[in-house]
Amino acid sequence: MNQNKYRFIADPDQIRPEAWDEFVEQHSMGNFFQTRFGMRFFLPKGRAVCLFVLSTEDEILGLIVGYVEEFGPAFLRKFLSRVVVIGGPLVRDNDPGILENLLREFLITAGKGHIYIEIRNLHDLSHRGIFHSCGYAFKPHYNVINCLEATEEEIFHSFSPSRRKGIRKAEKAGFTVSVSHHLSVEEVILFHGLIKEFHRGVNIPYPRRQFLEQANLPLFEGHLLYFLLHDAQGNIRAILLSTIFRKTLYGYIIGYSTDIDFIHSKPFDYLYWQVFRQSKELGYDYFDWMGAGSPGKDYGVRDFKLQFGGKLTEPGRFTAIINPLMYRLFLGILVPFSKWITGLRFIKKGNGS
Questions:
Q1: Longest C-alpha distance within the chain, in Å?
Q2: 146: which of 22, 120, 160, 310 fits an S-S bond (Cβ 3.0–4.6 Å)?
Q3: Are 10 and 50 in contact, with CB atoms under 8 Å apart?
Q4: Which domain covers residue 293, as residue numbers?
Q5: Distance (Å, rounded) from C-alpha 193 to C-alpha 212?
Q6: 310-340 pLDDT, tens digit each
Q7: 106 and 203 within one domain
């Protein structure tokens, strides 16, 4: 690609909204996270980072949308941050020249001041060599995708016997699932509490309530879908937030009660069965689980997801290390310490042993 015939734009406000929408919508690997709405979706989590390649006629040739994620105590967050990109970059006709220049420029404009850039792929990508030559190392990472185009009966019988047995047990316990594009204020507060309860139980970070409040704005009603699991008394015990793009639902984040009696009732077998069933009724063809761990490592969550009959894929991830010393410090000390602190707080509140 002749560099005299294109230019880079980092300010999303300089991009015509309809041109952005059209580019992502028509791209074969288009997804929610590279849309304008995906950018707005992540704003409460961290500053948006965008880069566009435009022709001299201001036609979009490529784009990449990510967000800055900070870690640690407030006084250190300025120095402990990474850039996360989901489902990007997207380039016209998957042109290798556009891709190479976009990746190199993004490393310069987006990477400055951060520890590393992580690109989480949603599709099996070609041109891995280009990523490598631009400083992005590939790391294998699994995903699971369920096709919902079969009949309801065929979908149910694609589940493992243990999952089908769990669904029947949950049905007898009186669980029900409702679906909505919007939560009430009280439900947002409850959802955040459930996310906090679950994430602290497994010692991983969780988003602030502001993130859920932003996601609940009318702006996102056509782009997000909530699945609410109710017990026999009508209490909400779990909520799954999915993003929408074309005919695909992406299971982005879940929050649920960690009560042992609740867990033993097999609520998640029933929840995901209803997610598939109701998504199919609403006209969606695919459910993307958004990650299933790394190859060569035992991962019970991956086993659970595969027992619903989905297809295992390996889109992988790319990492560009900006600050090698801080990267080693981040992975070797800061992340384990953060998880330990999270777990300690959880135990002190009487939710662990």
A1: 67
A2: 310
A3: yes
A4: 144-310
A5: 11
A6: 999 999 999 999 988 888 876 666 655 555 4
A7: no
